[in-house]
Hints:
Elements: H1 5-36, H2 67-77
Amino acid sequence: xxxxxxxxxxxxxxxxxxxxxxxxxxxxxxxxxxxITPVDQYRIPKGYAVKAFQSQDGTRNVEHANMGERLRxxxxxxx
Length: 79
């Protein structure tokens, strides 16, 4: 069995380029993710904005409601 040196070098080049491009793509996705994520996503909203999630609801306790009531609440309020 003859092992071609050119073929081995070609395969090695392909693997090196593939790993380098994969590494670069991974880091580009990380940069994009950091760019699109807000700086402080848990800060208090300013102006007319409101927080969409509140841990305690004063009027109803949705966490302990049955499934039909939760579905009705979802369709009624859109949350």
